[in-house]
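Deliverable D5.2: sample structural annotation.
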Amino acid sequence: MESLLDRLKSRYRLEILEYDTTGERLDDTVFYVRFAQAVRGLIGSAEDGFLLSLLHDVNHIVQELQSLGQDPREAFECILITGRTLQETTGEGFYADVQRIRISDVVEVFCFQMPGGGNIFLLCGPDEVVMIDTGYGIYHQDVVRMLQHYGLGDLRKIRRIYITHADADHCGAGGLFGAEAYMHTGSLAIIRQANRAYGSRSESSILEEVYTTIINLFSHFAPPESPALFPEESIGMRSIFPILTRFRVHDLEFEVLESLGGHLHGQVYFLCLEHGIIFTADTLINFGSLDEERRRYNSLADFLVTSVNVDSDLARTERIALLELIADLDKDLIQSGRRCLVACGHGAISVLSGGRLEAAGPIERYRPEGGRGG
């Protein structure tokens, strides 16, 4: 053990938290060795060189959090819980909360809340199905089985995928569907740089870069390889947000609104004015509709990167502007007995009530046959 530690210390900056030369308390001594064994159990067989490289990256997170006064043991535990949660919520452990709402005479929207990470939305028209965000890659097979359960199993009908932003829980299965994907140029840059803080004032943050590596690894990151990109020049403004382009899903016309980059560079929103629905990505989240397991999972990323928003000030500005935009749309829609539906990045499709988001319509729990999830 001493020889191993000497070799590690010669290449990596390590802090030995406890070291008992008698070997009587081995389980509490060599923290990195225990961590490596746990990670190997999550990612399967891996070359030692790869595992050492990953340990080197993780050590950066631990040192950075230590400098912020955080317990390094908690950082290790959060990383492992992240991987274990994703692994344990696949297969028999998979579940989802599902909403089904008619938007127009011919188009329905399905909202599938994953066990961990962001929502998957399907806009179902008579001739095609359009997906908005894809969930983690690790959930792909479970999602396919779930779509079959809801009569949506013909994946050939999913011809377009629109990505709101480059986080793994929103685009990480995009390359596993045979559909053309559309995203912002900034999202593609983040995917290629493997750094969720790329293009923001937090770009040099080691926490963001290493967290991106870890979550992409644990979640089986498989984004679209050659997506179509939204135009970079705006064609107008909606509130404080540039309108980049428009697209149609049968009788629904959507504006693609460019965010200010508060949550992530390149994040976009999709707004249908006529039929009153807006996909807000992670700028608006109905936290009240999240169950305890989802809240706990979401808190892990918050701890490891200190904030999931790469620019908290811009994120606050975006939230205020979106809430004002939704409130204004509601005034017009209420006259015809409708409400503006808020399709959040996480949580239930909601309506704005008294300044707060409240779930719209019934929500059912999906579990695979014989499953134990949720």
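Annotation notes: The chain has ten helices and 16 strands. The first strand starts at residue 96 and ends at 102.
The annotation will be released with the project's public dataset once the embargo ends.
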